[in-house]
Design goal:
Order of helices and strands: HHH
Structural class: mainly alpha
Shape: globular
Number of helices: 3
Length: about 90
């Protein structure tokens, strides 16, 4: 399944798209995020932005994507329970 986020303004080589796709698919599978969910759109944009700004190492980018999803999940739970989100540090 291809990343479906609007890629306007992003110029990636085919091998870069392949790398981003692998990371995106892996994280969506691990976190059980449907690929056509708003969370998947946010993840795709986050990954592309990180890559564009120089985070091109697949392992590092995967960890950043996992952190992004964990942080977003924590905030969503806090909103639904009415409690402040727990502070998490980025590695």
């Amino acid at each position: 399944m291809a990343i479906h986020f609007d890629q306007t303004g992003f110029d990636f080589a085919p091998e870069q798209i392949d790398t981003l796709q692998r990371i995106f698919d892996r994280i969506c599978f691990e976190t059980r995020i449907p690929r056509y969910d708003v969370r998947a759109d946010r993840l795709a944009k986050f990954l592309m932005d990180e890559f564009k700004f120089g985070n091109t190492d697949e392992l590092a980018l995967t960890e950043c994507g996992r952190w992004f999803c964990k942080r977003a999940s924590s905030r969503q739970r806090a909103v639904s329970t009415g409690q402040p989100p727990q502070r998490q540090t980025r590695h």
